Amino acid sequence: MKSTEFKTWMDSIERMSRNQRDKLRKRLEGKENTDEVIALIERNQDDKPACPYCKTSNLYRWGKASELQRYRCRQCNRTFNALTGTPLARLRHKDKWYEYEQTMIQGLSIRKSSDSCGIAKNTSFKWRHRFLQIPSTGQPSKMNGIVEADETYFLESFKGQRRLPRSARKRGGKAVKKGTSKEQVPVLVVRDRHGETANCILHGTSARQIEPVLIPLLNKDVILCTDGLPTYKQIARQANIAHRPVNIAAGQRVINNIYHIQNVNAYDSRLKQWMRKFNGVATRYLGSYLGWHRMIERLGQSITPTLCFLASLGKTRQIQ
């Protein structure tokens, strides 16, 4: 815009009504937020981006798309930008992404998030599961030292489905039977004393279900602390891993003032308390919510919308 055109535009602001000035301010604020998001995306892009289709780095710039720098591959002639191939590809309203991430930090429901950000409920649902796609699969590769393992249970939920295999109940309701039953979904939680945490939805609590997800997480020199469930004793013996079972049923809490499962139990308690605000999470989306909570715990007090956004792109390790 030329300086004379800009001066004319500035003069016209004086003649605007209050409603028009409010609309202009919101438009400019949205543009500023969009610019910040785009700057963050491109700043955290690899120095030498590779084509997501053929993996070559023989590229050249090819204009812009959705305000992001677009590239064209000399090898396959396809175009892409920094979001191509990521969970956030083709999502709109970038000016609201930071605000939406703030609602996720607060743990708001889908409906409350949509009301807070002024977006449709279906958009809020899509964004939530796109933002959680990478955190839901992010697990530590190996755990060291003293490692605690225990199961926790969530009520099976068919929330959002039209056809139920049972009679409907109030959201966040209670199981018909007391204790563990087929109405409960078991989740294995594994946590070491350094704070590394992994959890996995199980189809049962036998050795056949637990061993394939537990053993790959453990280094050979770990000391595994569990309750007295015989399954863990069998798994530890077969994997030749040191095992310290705590006999909770007999009132035992700690062995030699070192070995216990209080760390993982405290995590389970925080997880359950955090989950209550959603009034029941659909079982098919439980993995996403488990990953969401792992991200919040891992980032701790330093969590910001920026870190959540980068976590959704799998880039939080670059700035920690």
Indicate the CATH topology of the domain at 146-302. Nucleotidyltransferase, domain 5
* The CATH H-level homologous superfamily of the domain at 146-302: Ribonuclease H-like superfamily/Ribonuclease H
Number of helices: 10
Which CATH architecture of the domain at 146-302 is right?
2-Layer Sandwich
Which stretches are low in confidence, meaning pLDDT under 50 for 5 or more residues running? Answer: none
Mean pLDDT: 84
Based on CA atoms alone, the radius of gyration comes out at 25 Å
Shape: globular
Tell me the span between the first and last alpha carbons.
Answer: 40 Å
Structural classification: alpha/beta
Strand line-up of the largest beta sheet = 6-5-4-7-8
Number of strands: 8
Strand content: 5-15%
Proportion of helical residues: 25-40%
Question: What string, H for helix and E for strand, traces the elements in order?
Answer: HHEEEHHHEEEHEHEHHH
> What characterizes the major β-sheet?
5 strands, mixed
Question: What does this entry look like structurally?
Answer:
By secondary structure, the chain is an alpha/beta fold. It has a domain at 146-302: Ribonuclease H-like superfamily/Ribonuclease H (Nucleotidyltransferase, domain 5, 2-Layer Sandwich). The protein contains ten helices and eight strands. The chain is globular and about 85 Å long.
